[in-house]
Amino acid sequence: MDNKLEIINEIDKIFEEAQKSLNSAKDLNELDISFRFFTGKKGRLTEIMHNIRLYSTEEKKIVGAKSNEVKNTIEFIYNARKNEFSGAEQKKFLNRYRVDLTIPGNYIERHHKHPITAVLEEASDFFSSMGFEIVEGPEIETTYYNFDALNIPADHPARDVWDTFYLLNGLVPRTHTSSVQVRTMEKKSPPFRVIAPGRCYRYEAVDATHLFMFNQMEGLFVDKNVRLTDLKGILEETVKNLLGARKTRFRPAFYPFVEPGLDLDIECVFCGGRGCGICKNTGWIEVIPCGMVHPNVFKYAGIDPQEYRGFAFGMGFDRIVMLKYSINDLRLLYHGNLDILNQF
Ligand code: PHE
Predict the structure, then answer these.
(1) 258 is an active site residue
(2) Is 202 one of the annotated active-site residues of the chain?
(3) Among the options 182, 194, 196, 312, which is catalytic?
């Protein structure tokens, strides 16, 4: 029985030590170490419980009950302190990464489409509604598609009008979207109607109405019985749709890839036709060069000019935007100045 008393005392001592150690732990780590020291695999209490088999049945009962009780109490203290630490740690974390839901967020301003994009989409919708398909061609072109196949041979004086930058490899940043006419005719068999919007480049002294990089929208309509009156009807409708009801006029013009060639003018939106600096005192502004596809262009593209006819046009698109919004300087559209762009 002495033996029993001794072991009971020993358990009491362990308990006292464990209690002290657990209560003085300064963080979760220290707490874990001390918990393992008493109750872990090789812990002091574990050792006693392990040796219990050496006692008599009666002793086993008493020592077993005592050590279980102590073990449970140690576990209880351990868990209580653990909660205390995790609570504190959580608080520390929350303090560090505090989210104040009452602070107003960063204001992200919503913008809108650039006027050129917006009008381009509007025009594309309009042409789609008349059965035109939207096609594209490369911005870097061969001289064949940009000039030769459009009836502008190398020695033709008309080539000067479009003379431009050349790349070292002989290719050319296209000077007009008319190059897409030939590419389309090669690919599609008539009848078809397409528009081809895109950027063009020219060797140009930049001023209020000229840029070295600009947008055009080409149109091409090929069928058996296309006539000049179809061209006039569709383009007048286009002007009405994009710019509102305006006085228009067609006048003869020369482009090697059309015959006859025309320019569609509208009454100057800046002076109402009285004459001003922008319309060079003519009262008219040229908006859509156009004409009936030249038989030579059909021949280059492999379409029989005896069987098919077509009309083509090439709107200076930036100019349409300029007229639509009465902007008196094209350069403003490309400066990226939000004070200006936000007005549209
Ligand atoms: N490509 C011509 C230009 O840039 C415009 C045009 C297109 C004229 C189609 C007639 C027909 O000036």
Answers:
(1) yes
(2) yes
(3) 312
Per the structure, how many domains does the chain have? Answer: 2
Q: Please answer whether residues 8 and 48 qualify as being in contact, where contact means their C-beta atoms are separated by less than 8 angstroms.
A: no
Same domain, 87 and 217: no
Contact 147, 265 (CB under 8 A): no
Any ligand 1 atom below 6 A from CB of 258: yes
Per annotation, catalytic residue among 81, 159, 193, 202: 202
Interval 239-283: pLDDT, tens: 999 999 889 999 999 999 999 999 999 999 889 999 998 888 999
How much of the chain is in helix, strand and coil states, percent to nearest 5?
A: 45, 20, 35
Give residue 201's domain range: 115-341
CA nearest 62: which of 1, 135, 113, 134? 1
Decide whether any atom of ligand 1 lies within 6 Å of the 311 Cβ: no
Q: Of 76, 68, 88, nearest to 35 (Cα)?
A: 76
Out of 27, 61, 96, pick the residue that ends a domain.
96
Tens of pLDDT, residue by residue over 97-154, are 888 888 888 888 888 899 999 999 999 999 999 999 999 999 999 999 999 999 999 8
Please indicate whether residue 216 is annotated as part of the active site.
yes
104 is a domain residue: no
Q: Output DSSP code: residue 254.
A: -
Would the pTM count as exceeding 0.85?
A: no
Determine, yes or no, domain membership for 321. Answer: yes
Which of 164, 175, 176 for a ligand 1 pocket mutation test, highest count of atoms within 8 Å of Cβ?
Answer: 176
- 157 and 280 in a single domain? The answer is yes
313 CB near ligand 1 (under 6 Å): yes
For the stretch 7-45, pLDDT in tens is 888 899 999 999 999 999 998 899 999 999 999 988 888
Residue 79 in tokens:
């868990």
CA torsion angle 251 256 257 258 (round to 10)? 30
